[in-house]
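Thanks for the sequence, V.! I ran Endothelin-converting enzyme homolog isoform X1 right away. Repeating your input here for the record:
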Amino acid sequence: MASHTGNTPLAENSDYNNGEIFFNQPKSLKRVLDRYVRQRNTFLATTVLLFVACIVLLVCFIVLKRTENSASPADGICNSLGCISNVAEIISSMNFSADPCDNFYNYACGGWERDNDIPDTESSWGQFDILNLANDNVLKKLVKDPKTKLIYKDNAAVQKAFKYYETCMNRSRINDQGAQPLIDLIADYHSWNVTGNGTWREESWNFTTAMIAIQRKWYANPFFAISTGADYYNSTVNVIELDQSGLGMTKDNYLNNGTDDEK
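Predicted structure:
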């Protein structure tokens, strides 16, 4: 604040009141200061947000790194549960008493053969058979679970699978029907004199016609198997293949008169 007397002209950016002069800031300077304040606030807010984002990213990186280290090999050794389980299975399948230079197969697989006898219902047994059995057990739990049936109530294919399983497991109905469904099926193919129903006629029965019908509808291979595959001489085309049918085991199992160990 300053006094002013006389005829000295006042500046354009000042106010005069009762002999006192008040100098005002230029409007351009005020705008500059306002812009500076806004920019400073924006900068501070951006800095805080970036700092928070960096902290979050750092925490995520640490968590992911710890998870990766727990599942990845440390010093060349995998200590995860899956690795330990697989290693234990491999070790139990080996036979360390065998000399690998003399019989490597016995050294690598002797333990598995020792602990896994061929079931009485199977002609052979291996890892894929065990895997199939595990898959069958999973499917069995699914088809017996009412919740699964409810979830797939609108899926026609899944409902057919449920119906198929329930029909096969309905033992009381199977026992009540006895052999009648099989007799009816035989009758659909011009009967059979062994069934004793007296409807079979040699002059009206044709072997070729019956085999074609059975193969087409039931995909059964009583005497020979029919399939398609690539031509051995031209892999760009497929050919119809005819092969011998089988009873589940090779002919050696039926013809050889040896001991179980030899088989």
